[in-house]
Fold:
Amino acid sequence: MSLRLFNSLSRQVETFVPMTPGAVRMYVCGMTIYDYCHVGHARMMMSFDVVQRWLKASGYQVTYVRNIT
Structure:
């Protein structure tokens, strides 16, 4: 099963092809913690966690970096 993502540059759904075969590097700009916590924070944390777990389960070597400001 392939991962299909919406490419906002081309405005099309495309099949994911990593830049380096077998390896994926993810940088996620995390939540800003200067205000009250809300459900949007949990959604962002969960969605990218699910993506990186799916990639690992699919056999990719994943480097996952999350920034919290």
